[in-house]
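Quick review question:
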């Protein structure tokens, strides 16, 4: 009898372990280390590679404000050829990292999302002068798509680490709803950056926003988990986001 009970317990343990590995990470199922997040402001330069020449597009400032119950992310993008600043704001729960609020304002559109039992808000297309009221029902937990690049650096990264992440994205030209981002591969490398050699987690990701046709590669410092660089490969082109302070 004891042997039968042991075998049943073992089978259930294997099943649950397999289930947890297959299920996408979400606010109810993740092992992110929130201690890697600190209140800070940092800047990255945005570069387009043309052949082997770097052409600077602009700069991106990210402000992180960590409070007891909420964490705020404000991203300001300054484009060299544009007089309009792009501003994205994201608010998440510090308890389980679930989304609370997201807004995005730029020269093409304004968008506001409020996450509760349903997702409400609006999307204003400035090209067509069309405002769409948003009411989306969801039946599964997810992270805000604007937060998941930050989430990656909080995960238990290791050699060959891979997983999927459940995210919500609202883009009438691409995807609307709960979709997936995928960490395809993780390797440990050394990177010469700012005159120093750093131990780096090189993390390759794709997501359903681009039908997994865009490869995002994050270069994350091992000990403090700062993102030193991000490369974006799409359609034979490459963009680079690089930390400058």
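Suggested answer, residue by residue:
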């Amino acid at each position: 009898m004891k042997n039968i009970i042991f075998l049943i317990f073992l089978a259930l343990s294997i099943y649950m372990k397999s289930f947890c590995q297959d299920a996408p990470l979400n606010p109810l199922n993740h092992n992110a280390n929130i201690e890697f997040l600190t209140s800070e402001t940092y800047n990255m330069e945005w570069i387009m590679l043309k052949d082997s020449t770097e052409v600077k597009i602009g700069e991106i400032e990210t402000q992180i404000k960590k409070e007891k119950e909420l964490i705020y992310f404000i991203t300001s993008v300054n484009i060299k050829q544009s007089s309009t600043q792009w501003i994205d704001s994201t608010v998440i729960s510090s308890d389980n990292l679930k989304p609370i609020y997201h807004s995005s304002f730029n020269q093409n559109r304004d968008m506001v999302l409020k996450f509760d039992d349903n997702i409400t808000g609006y999307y204003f297309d400035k090209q067509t002068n069309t405002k769409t009221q948003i009411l989306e029902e969801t039946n599964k937990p997810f992270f805000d798509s604007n937060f998941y690049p930050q989430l990656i650096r909080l995960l238990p990264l290791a050699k060959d680490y891979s997983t999927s992440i459940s995210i919500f994205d609202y883009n009438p030209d691409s995807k609307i709803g709960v979709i997936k981002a995928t960490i395809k591969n993780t390797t440990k490398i050394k990177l010469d950056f700012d005159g120093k050699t750093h131990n780096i987690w090189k993390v390759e990701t794709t997501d359903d926003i681009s039908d997994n046709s865009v490869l995002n590669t994050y270069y994350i410092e091992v000990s403090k988990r700062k993102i030193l660089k991000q490369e974006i490969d799409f359609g034979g082109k490459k963009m680079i986001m690089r930390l400058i302070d």
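Why it works: Confidence is low (pLDDT under 50) at residues 5-21. Residues 124 and 131 are 4 Å apart (CA to CA).
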